[in-house]
C-alpha cells in the first residue's frame, strides 16, 4: 500500500519532536550548571578560583560540602538517582502508555516534571534551604515523571509512520534529544550569569508550556481523526447488516471481538462493509521482553547509554575542569557533540533503510567510536579542534544511540509476532530505554569516582571498554543479518543463473530448429 503523508503526519512529527526537545532542554539544565552549583554548595574559602562575594559568616553556616570533590561526587549521585528512578519509571510508563491515552500521559509528565525542576532549582534556592535528602527526593520524582516522555512519543510516531521509511523519519526525528540539549545549552548560557536558579526557571517554564500544547494539540493515532491507515498500512473491517449480526474473526489472539462465539458469518454480497473498532490488548512485560532482539538491544543500549549520558551530564564539567574554560563557553562548545549525534542518527537511519537492516549499520559505527574516543580523550583545548573531534565522537556514539532508541525500538515493537498491535510499542520502547537508563545510572556513579581517583584519561579508557561491550551485544544480530543478506544475494544469483540457463537453452533450441529448417530446404 502506498502511504500518503498528510498534514497530520507533519503536525504529529513536529509536536512530538518539540515535546521531547523540551524534556531534554530541561534535563540539560542540571548538567550545564554543575560547576556553578558546586560553587554554591561549598565554602567560599575552599574555592580559590571564585571571587568571594558572599558574606563569609552567613555562607559558611549553611554550605553542604567541605570541598569541591565532595560536591562533585554528590552531583554524580544525583545523576545516578535521576537515572535509576528514570529507568524504573520507563518500565512502568511504557505499560501505562499502552493502556491509557498517550496524549494525556505525555502532557501530565511534562507539566509535573517542570514543577519538580522549578522546586529543585528555584524555590529551594530562593528560600535558602539546602538539604541533601530533599534534593535526592525531588530528583527521584523528576526521574519518574520524565520517564513518561520517551515511550509515549516513540509509540505515537510508530503509529503514524511505517517500517519502510522509519529509519529516515525516526533517524531524523530522534534528533529531538540532541536539539533539546542544544536549546537547553543556549537557554542556560543566556541566563547563567544571573544565577543558576534563573536557568532552572527558564527551562521549567518552557517545559510546562509545552505540556499544555501537547494536551490540546497532539493526535495519538490516525484513527482519532478518521484516517484508515494504521502504522503498517492496514486497517480492520467487519461485516454489518440490518438483518444479520456479523463478525470478522481474526487469527490474532491479541484481538477481542464482542460476542465472537455466537456471531454468524454472513455470505451475502449485498451487506455493507464498514470499519469496526476492535479492542487490541496490550502485551505484558514478559511478552515484550521475550520478543526477538529485545534483550540483546536492551543490553547493548545499557552500555551505549552509559557513555552517551556521561557526555550529556559531564561534558561541560570536563571542559571547565580540563581546559579552565568559562562555564558559558563550555556550554556552547558542548553542543557540537549533539550536532554530531543529529547527523549520525540521520545518516545511519537512511543507510539502514536502504539496507533494510539496522545492525549492519550499527556495528561498524560502534567499532569506529572506539578510536574516536581515544583521539578526543587526547585532544587539546583549542576551541575549533576540540569542537570538531567532539562532533565526530557524537556522530558515532550519539548517532547509534538515536537509531536504537527510536527506529530500532519501533521495529522491535511492531515486528512479526505483534505486527498490527499498536499497544505493544510503548512497552517495548520502555524496556529498551529503561535498561539503557540502568546502565547510564551506573555510569554516573563510576565516572566521578574514576575521575577523582585516576583522572579523565582513565574515564575515556573506561568509555572505550564500554563501547566494545556494546558492540559484543549487538554482534549476534549483526551476524544474523549478514547471513540473511548473503542468502538473499545467493538466491538472486541462483535465480539469475537459472534464467540465464533457460535463455541459453531457448537460444540453442531456436538455432537447432533454424538449422534443421535450412537442411530440409
TrEMBL record:
Every copy of the Major facilitator superfamily (MFS) profile domain together lies at 5-482
Q: Where are the transmembrane segments?
A: 7-26, 73-93, 105-127, 133-156, 168-192, 198-219, 282-300, 306-323, 335-352, 358-376, 388-408, 428-447, 459-479
Q: Name one GO cellular component term.
A: endoplasmic reticulum membrane
GO molecular function list? transmembrane transporter activity
Membrane topology qualifier? Multi-pass membrane protein
Q: Which PROSITE patterns match?
A: MFS
Note one Pfam family from the annotation: MFS_1
Localization recorded for this chain is: Membrane
Q: Which UniProt keywords apply?
A: Membrane, Sugar transport, Transmembrane, Transmembrane helix, Transport
Q: Which InterPro entries match?
A: MFS, MFS_dom, MFS_trans_sf, Sugar_P_transporter
* Similarity comment: family membership: Belongs to the major facilitator superfamily. Organophosphate:Pi antiporter (OPA) (TC 2.A.1.4) family.
What is the designated name of this protein?
Answer: Sugar phosphate exchanger 3
Q: Which organism is it from?
A: Patella caerulea (Rayed Mediterranean limpet)
Amino acid at each position: 500500500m502506498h502511504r500518503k503523508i498528510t498534514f497530520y503526519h507533519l503536525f504529529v512529527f513536529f509536536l512530538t519532536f518539540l515535546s521531547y526537545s523540551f524534556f531534554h532542554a530541561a534535563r540539560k539544565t542540571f548538567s550545564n550548571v554543575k560547576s556553578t552549583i558546586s560553587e554554591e554548595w561549598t565554602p567560599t574559602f575552599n574555592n580559590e578560583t571564585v571571587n568571594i562575594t558572599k558574606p563569609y559568616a552567613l555562607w559558611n553556616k549553611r554550605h553542604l560540602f567541605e570541598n569541591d570533590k565532595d560536591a562533585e561526587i554528590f552531583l554524580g549521585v544525583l545523576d545516578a538517582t535521576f537515572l535509576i528512578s528514570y529507568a524504573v519509571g520507563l518500565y512502568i510508563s511504557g505499560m501505562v502508555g499502552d493502556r491509557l491515552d498517550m496524549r494525556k500521559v505525555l502532557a501530565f509528565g511534562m507539566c509535573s516534571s517542570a514543577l519538580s525542576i522549578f522546586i529543585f532549582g528555584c524555590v529551594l534556592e530562593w528560600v535558602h534551604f539546602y538539604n541533601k535528602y530533599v534534593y535526592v527526593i525531588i530528583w527521584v520524582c523528576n526521574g519518574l515523571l520524565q520517564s513518561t516522555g520517551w515511550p509515549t512519543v516513540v509509540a505515537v510516531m510508530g503509529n503514524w509512520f511505517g517500517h519502510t521509511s522509519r529509519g529516515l523519519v525516526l533517524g531524523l526525528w530522534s534528533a529531538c534529544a540532541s536539539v533539546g540539549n542544544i536549546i537547553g545549552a543556549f537557554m542556560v548560557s543566556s541566563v547563567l550569569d544571573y544565577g543558576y536558579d534563573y536557568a532552572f526557571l527558564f527551562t521549567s517554564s518552557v517545559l510546562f508550556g509545552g505540556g499544555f500544547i501537547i494536551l490540546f494539540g497532539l493526535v495519538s493515532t490516525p484513527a482519532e481523526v478518521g484516517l484508515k491507515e494504521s502504522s503498517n498500512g492496514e486497517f480492520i473491517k467487519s461485516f454489518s447488516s440490518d438483518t444479520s449480526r456479523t463478525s470478522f474473526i481474526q487469527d490474532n489472539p491479541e484481538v477481542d471481538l464482542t460476542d465472537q462465539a455466537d456471531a454468524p458469518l454472513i455470505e451475502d454480497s449485498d451487506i455493507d462493509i464498514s470499519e469496526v473498532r476492535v479492542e487490541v490488548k496490550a502485551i505484558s512485560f514478559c511478552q515484550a521482553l521475550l520478543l526477538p532482539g529485545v534483550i540483546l538491544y536492551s543490553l547493548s543500549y545499557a552500555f551505549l547509554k552509559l557513555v552517551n549520558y556521561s557526555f550529556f551530564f559531564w561534558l561541560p564539567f570536563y571542559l571547565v575542569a580540563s581546559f579552565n574554560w568559562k562555564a558559558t563557553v563550555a556550554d556552547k562548545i558542548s553542543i557540537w557533540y549533539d550536532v554530531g549525534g543529529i547527523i549520525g542518527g540521520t545518516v545511519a537511519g537512511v543507510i539502514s533503510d536502504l539496507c533494510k537492516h539496522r545492525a549492519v549499520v550499527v556495528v561498524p559505527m560502534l567499532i569506529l567510536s572506539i578510536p574516536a574516543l581515544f583521539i578526543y580523550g587526547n585532544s587539546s583545548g583549542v576551541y575549533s579542534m576540540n569542537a570538531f573531534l567532539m562532533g565526530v565522537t557524537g556522530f558515532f556514539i550519539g548517532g547509534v544511540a538515536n537509531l536504537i532508541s527510536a527506529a530500532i525500538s519501533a521495529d522491535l515493537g511492531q515486528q512479526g509476532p505483534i505486527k498490527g498491535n499498536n499497544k505493544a510499542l510503548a512497552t517495548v520502547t520502555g524496556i529498551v530505554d529503561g535498561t539503557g537508563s540502568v546502565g547510564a545510572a551506573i555510569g554516573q556513579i563510576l565516572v566521578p569516582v574514576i575521575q577523582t581517583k585516576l583522572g579523565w584519561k582513565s574515564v575515556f579508557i573506561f568509555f572505550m571498554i564500554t563501547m566494545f561491550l556494546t558492540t559484543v551485544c549487538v554482534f549476534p544480530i549483526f551476524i544474523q543479518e549478514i547471513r540473511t543478506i548473503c542468502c538473499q544475494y545467493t538466491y538472486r544469483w541462483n535465480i539469475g543463473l537459472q534464467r540465464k540457463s533457460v535463455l541459453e537453452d531457448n537460444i540453442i533450441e531456436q538455432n537447432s530448429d533454424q538449422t534443421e529448417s535450412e537442411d530440409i530446404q
